[in-house]
Amino acid sequence: MGHAFRLAVAGILLAATAAPALAAPSALIRCDGYGRRQTPGEQVGRGLLILGTLGLFGSAEADNPGAREAGEKGIAACTEALTDSRTTGNPVRRAEVLLMRGVRQFEMGRFDDAIADARAARAVELTPLVRAHFDRTLGASTIMLEAFARLSQSNQAEAEKLAHQAAQARPTGLYMAEEALRIMTLTPEITPEEKTLLERDWKMSPNMRPVLNLSGAGDWAGAAAAIKTLVATFTKPGVVILSHQAALQALAGDTKGAEETLARVGQDIDELAAKAGGTDQNAQTAAQQVARADEMVQLAKAQVALNQGKIEEAKGLLAGRPRWLSPASLTAQIIANVQARGGPGTVPGIDPAKIRADAMKVVREALTGKGVLNNLVVALPRWEDASEAQDFGKLIAPTSKVMQPKPTRDGAATSIVSARSAALDTVNEALLVAAARATAARGQDKFAVLINFGSNRGTRAGITSSFTLFDFVTPADALFATQASRAFTVAEIETALGAQYRAPLPQR
């Protein structure tokens, strides 16, 4: 009995001393927070990527993103992880580690090293079928990392070229297009490449991006037209976007349109102001919206007065305010316009050039400073199982009970909801296909997206959407007339995505 007891105690002590070593995260976990992944294989006969056919390399280890090391420690962890059998036996996993090491090199300001790691990640040896899927996901992220590094080296032209290349790797994707446009907005001119991405972004997810980029380029007529189209997508537009519209209309020379919008938003601001007197969150939000709208209304009225030759009225509308919080491009332009017509002493203490420069400094800092790191670490797309598209194909099939089109807005539009967690661009593509097929089922040949809004978070695949609301209209809907310039054809969506987003055929 004594011998058995001593053996039991020894076993407990051994386990106790071994536990910390077993619990310590490996270099792979400390590098990017994730353990091994199955090796991508191919089933060429069906033209599909599948997982697990080549087996798993290395020991299993629970994912732990919280264990990621930053800076020098992160670089060292990733370098050590490159010797792990889970990376030496799996080129996709190796590329992910190289990408993360490149991100940490970027963090330390070693931009050439970051570029070298990005290129090494792209250069891993893959079969053609795996390469095609890699290039749409992880490969595009290595190009975007290089773009951010070039931007940080003050090489704007090369950064824009690389950002466009990354976005083109997935022509029906949203995330990379948005990232590329953030880089491109640093220069006032809109290049053909930027125009292409703006049009893509505008069609897939109507938002303020085209308005802001066109404003930055001084294309007031284009910005006014874009925001008018955007306003039409809302059942009840907010006071901030309406006041923004009025200012852009005034800058574009549409004085009558600006006055009509000002009359419309004035009543809405009065109603919202009545809700802003409390101390709860709703009241505070209302107060903030009123303050922002009032400022842009003041700017819009000043430009309207200027358009009508009422110089003193325009000067009076802008007098006495030490700073402006409205979008820099339109604020600076209206103040500059009034100063040019009003003579010396007009809007004293306000320099439009400084307003623009300060705003651009903030934008650039967000793209090259610490703020970009979270995007690079968490949001950049990584590898995602290619069968996700087929899984969505099952969900959008007419026999499915989910992701089916339903009337919304009292029958004025159609809505499809996705509640499956997957890479943001995969969900976006699936919803486009679902809308195209629902449109075709109604006997229509095109559709326009009204809302593409989701709840996003960072996962192993990068930025993912766990819930997305997608509203659209077809030519059979009255609202389509205001959105026709943004429409997709059913044929173009089916050509680009239809084959991927179908349920798999039964195996024989």
Task: Summarize it.
Helix content is 59%, strand content 9%. It has 508 residues and is α+β, with helices and mostly antiparallel strands. The strands form two sheets. Strands 3, 4, 5, 6, 7 and 8 form a six-stranded antiparallel beta sheet that branches. Strands 1-2 form a two-stranded antiparallel sheet.
Class by SSE composition: alpha+beta
Q: Shape from CA axes? A: globular
Question: How far apart are the termini?
Answer: 62 Å
Largest sheet: 6 strands, antiparallel
Count of DSSP H/I helices: 24
What is the total tally of β strands? 8
Low-confidence stretches at least 5 residues in length (pLDDT < 50)?
1-21, 51-55
User: What do the pLDDT scores average to?
Assistant: 90
> What is the CA-atom radius of gyration, in angstroms?
27 Å
Beta content: 5-15%
Overall helicity: 55-70%
Which short descriptors sum up this protein?
globular; 508 residues; 9% strand; 24 helices; 6-stranded antiparallel beta sheet; two-stranded antiparallel sheet; disordered N terminus; alpha+beta
